[in-house]
From TrEMBL:
Family: Belongs to the acyl-CoA dehydrogenase family.
Span of domain Acyl-CoA oxidase/dehydrogenase middle: 163-265
Species annotation: Stereocaulon virgatum
Flavoprotein as UniProt keyword: yes
PANTHER family in alphabetical order: ACYL-COA DEHYDROGENASE FAMILY MEMBER 11, MEDIUM-CHAIN SPECIFIC ACYL-COA DEHYDROGENASE, MITOCHONDRIAL-RELATED
Domain Acyl-CoA dehydrogenase/oxidase C-terminal: 277-427
InterPro entries with a match to the protein in the record: Acyl-CoA_dehydrogenase, Acyl-CoA_Oxase/DH_mid-dom, Acyl-CoA_Oxase/DH_mid-dom_sf, AcylCo_DH-like_C, AcylCo_DH/oxidase_C, AcylCoA_DH/ox_N, AcylCoA_DH/ox_N_sf, AcylCoA_DH/oxidase_NM_dom_sf
Biased composition (Basic and acidic residues): 428-451
Name of the protein this chain belongs to: Acyl-CoA dehydrogenase
Keywords linked to the UniProt accession: FAD, Flavoprotein, Oxidoreductase
Quaternary structure note: Homodimer.
Pfam families: Acyl-CoA_dh_1, Acyl-CoA_dh_M, Acyl-CoA_dh_N
Coiled-coil intervals, chain numbering: none
Keyword Oxidoreductase among record annotations: yes
């Protein structure tokens, strides 16, 4: 190729709009199949052209008062039909662990989840919304044939929705050994008594099943073998939805985050998942990939916030002190920092996804924790800059930014508070203390010998 032809090729490529596949980080591109790249491009188009415009209609169709909880926006079913027709359905179940999914790796789906994170309705439209994704993984991995037939099939079809119940209002649930819900075996049934909250998804009228963690053996000496997981039909007698909690003032209807009480709730023993005392094993298997999904969707939200910020600072109507906002150096600095932080965070998450694909979530505990802690903090910083660029408009309903901030802020608590992950990461990293000190001591001694052999005077004294 001549220099002229090379230059023309560069110009042609720079003029062509980049697709989602074009934007896959170079270090990950080789691990993404051609089929996944094609679907990724489809996801991008579906989100940008169908879902984001539908977000406005979704909120308008919610209605007022109790109607917000009695039904759900019809646009959801319209989008689901479009997604199914395009083949953008159940994309999340990783191919190396499940036969029920669309055949993608965690890495490949993570890239798709990023685009879904730019829209309120996109994940649900593709049947890839939490908590259903994690609940379907539990059923697919641990469920019996009967449990799969009753609950997994309709969830995979998008006919019902589900909720995940672990957190409790009266204990510090960041330590899940503290949960107090009692699951008492009586004959061929379990009797449940207790209270749960932040039961996301339980407000939806389509929510048909709860995946519930409680204690079947509270006296077991091994505190991690006291807990079990049961599948509880939402309509079971004795269950009361006490209220739906708000997130910084947002009720998240019709999804909701419910506080639920259980009084002598009876379910058959066949509702037990995997077996008594296996609760922690199930929950850890559920939360690992889910944190990757949350993280990649959060990156999508940060990208959307950056787009809104760029649009604002280049709005010719908005000038301060005689200049357009983009002419003020601080705004360009915010844009640059946001770009750096988003791109760096994406690599952290994709690294964790690759590590899971390599084996399983247990193999990637450190990498998952890194993503879980870093990404929400990054997204909040980017969204906050966008809010600031809009001034008063940024904190009201006229932009999606305030709601996005509220949702992402919750992730610093959901699936384990930052502090829990940081404490465990710190402990594990600190296990290298002896090895590190010994290595530095060897290096110091070698340095001292070199200085002595050279006959020069040392310039400092080692702190070791």
């Amino acid at each position: 190729m001549s220099k002229s032809e090379f230059s023309q090729s560069l110009l042609a490529n720079s003029a062509r709009p980049q697709t989602a596949a074009d934007k896959i980080p170079i270090i990950a591109r080789g691990a993404v199949s051609d089929r996944a790249k094609e679907v990724l491009n489809q996801v991008e188009r579906f989100v940008e052209e169908e879902c984001i415009p539908a977000d406005v209609l979704f909120h308008s169709q919610l209605g007022e008062g109790e109607r917000r909880w009695a039904t759900y926006p019809p646009v959801i079913d319209e989008l689901k039909a479009k997604a199914k027709k395009l083949g953008l359905w159940n994309l999340f179940l990783p191919k190396n662990h499940f036969k029920e999914g669309a055949g993608f790796s965690n890495l490949e789906y993570g890239l798709m989840a990023e685009y879904m994170g730019k829209s309120r309705v996109a994940s649900e439209a593709c049947n890839c919304a939490a908590p259903d994704t994690g609940n379907m993984e539990v059923l697919a991995k641990y469920g019996t044939d009967a449990q799969k037939k009753q609950w997994l099939v309709p969830l995979l079809n998008g006919d019902i929705r589900s909720a995940f119940l672990m957190t409790e209002p009266d204990v510090a649930s960041s330590d899940a050994t503290n949960i107090t819900m009692i699951m008492e075996k009586q004959g061929n049934d379990y009797i449940l008594n207790g209270s749960k909250w932040w039961s996301s998804g339980a407000g939806d009228p389509r929510c048909a099943v709860y995946i519930v963690m409680g204690k079947t053996d509270p006296s077991n000496r091994d505190t991690y073998r006291q807990q079990s997981v049961l599948l509880v039909p939402a309509a079971t007698k004795g269950i009361t939805i006490e209220r739906c909690l708000s997130v910084y003032g947002y009720d998240d209807a019709p999804h909701g985050h419910a506080q639920i009480s259980f009084k002598d709730v009876r379910v058959p023993a066949s509702s037990m998942v995997l077996g008594e005392g296996r609760g922690f094993e199930i929950i850890q298997g559920r939360l690992g990939p889910g944190r990757i999904h949350h993280a990649m969707r959060s990156i999508g939200a940060a990208e959307k916030a950056l787009e809104w910020m760029i649009a604002r600072v280049n709005d010719p109507r908005k000038k301060t002190f005689g200049k357009q906002l983009s002419e003020h150096g601080v705004m360009l600095e915010w844009i640059a920092k946001s770009r750096l932080e988003i791109d760096a965070a994406r690599l952290i998450v994709l690294n964790a996804a690759v590590k899971i694909d390599e084996k399983d979530a247990k193999n990637a505990l450190k990498e998952i924790a890194e993503a879980k802690v870093l990404v929400p903090q990054m997204a909040l910083a980017v969204i906050d800059r966008a809010v600031q660029s809009y001034g008063g408009a940024g904190v009201c309903q006229d932009t999606p930014l305030a709601n996005m901030w509220a949702q992402i802020r919750t992730l610093r608590i959901a699936d384990g508070p930052d502090e829990v992950h940081l404490q465990q990461m710190g402990k594990n990293e600190n296990k290298r203390a002896r090895e590190v000190r010994e290595k530095l001591e060897r290096q110091r001694e070698a340095g001292d010998r070199l200085v002595k052999q050279s006959g020069v005077k040392p310039v400092g004294k080692s702190m070791l």
